[in-house]
Design goal:
4-stranded antiparallel β-sheet; 2 domains; binds adenosine-5'-triphosphate; 12 helices; binds magnesium ion; 6-stranded mixed β-sheet; 287 residues
């Protein structure tokens, strides 16, 4: 049990006429090493939810526990939590402010007293974890980089604190397909090599089919569904209710089923889809 929410409620502008109840009675456990996708209609509370994971927002009711320790508003504890759980906002490149990539990525570690060779090693590791070459890039001005590179620098600047969990709000939004693929691949490797827990908020079911093992569907401030990625994406009709279209591959598989081409369900990736089709064709050829 790494991150645990118990009966969490959150309201913006509480006790005012403008109060918005954004989370309602959320109970949720995230274990170390999981890879979780959070989906749901716009305004359903995804961004509000993930900001509770590193105490950027504090529940107006209920509790959040990190490694069994209840979040209170003590600053020493909050610092610790934010080092453990790195949060990457939507369009994080808008928050870049240093003049070199090195300073940007090294900002967090420097702040906690890391310097010299250790700092250099940390920055190098963070940049390489997102697929950027240290020598090529560390002296550049972040604003000279392409959109995809800037996004990766922004992710590296959170990674440089070596968080145990990385929580990302729409990490591939607005990127071209190549930029998307690269970031997802790097996040996957990060988890495989370091055991980093991943939580991704995304509107792209295709992205989540590639990277997530568990999916949480939110609905008007509550959790609608919470299950394995295969189970979630194979319930086309239920998903429709939550305003979600399953990944392209899953939909193609369903269409083939409807046309009488029985290739089974729970298909997630293009690789799986092509293998199932090939199997089916080979079997048909034998009759
Ligand atoms: N800073 C804020 N002040 C007031 N209300 C807010 C604020 N941020 C979000 N809300 C409201 O809280 C609710 C949940 O919003 P939230 O941003 O968490 O949804 P979301 O699922 O992340 O949406 P999206 O998919 O559009 O990013 C919405 O009704 C939203 O209007
Ligand atoms: Mg959001």
């Amino acid at each position: 049990m790494f991150i645990r929410l118990e009966n969490v409620f959150y309201s913006y502008f509480q006790h005012t006429p403008f109060e918005v109840q954004a989370l309602k009675n959320i109970t949720l456990t995230i274990n170390r090493g999981e890879s979780i996708g959070i989906i749901g209609r716009t305004g359903c509370g995804k961004s509000t939810l993930i900001q509770h994971f590193n105490a950027l927002l504090i529940a107006t009711q209920g509790s959040v526990l990190i490694d069994g320790e209840k979040i209170q508003k003590k600053s020493s504890q909050l610092k610790n939590i934010r080092r453990k759980i790195g949060l990457v906002f939507q369009y994080p490149e808008h928050q870049i402010f240093e003049e070199t990539v090195f300073d940007e990525v090294g900002f967090g570690p420097r702040n906690i007293g890391i310097s010299g060779q250790k700092l250099e090693e940390t920055v190098k590791w963070a940049l390489e974890s997102v697929g950027l070459d240290y020598q090529d890039i560390h002296k550049k001005n972040p604003f000279e980089l392409s959109g995809g590179q800037m996004r990766r620098v922004a992710i590296a600047s959170i990674l440089s604190m070596r968080p145990e969990a990385l929580v990302l709000d729409e990490p591939t939004a607005g990127l071209d397909p190549e930029g998307k693929r690269l970031i997802l691949k790097k996040l996957k490797t990060l988890r495989e090599e370091n055991g980093t827990t991943l939580v991704l908020v995304s509107h792209s079911m295709d992205d989540l089919a590639m990277i997530a093992e568990r999916i949480i569907v939110m609905d008007q401030g509550t959790i609608g569904l919470d299950s394995s990625v295969r189970k979630i994406f194979s319930q086309g009709k239920t998903l429709e209710y939550y305003g979600i279209k399953p990944p392209t591959t899953t939909r193609i598989a369903e269409l083939l089923q409807e046309k009488g081409f029985d290739i089974g369900n729970g298909i997630l990736t293009a690789q799986e889809l092509s293998e199932r089709i090939a199997e089916k064709i080979l079997k048909a050829g034998k009759h």
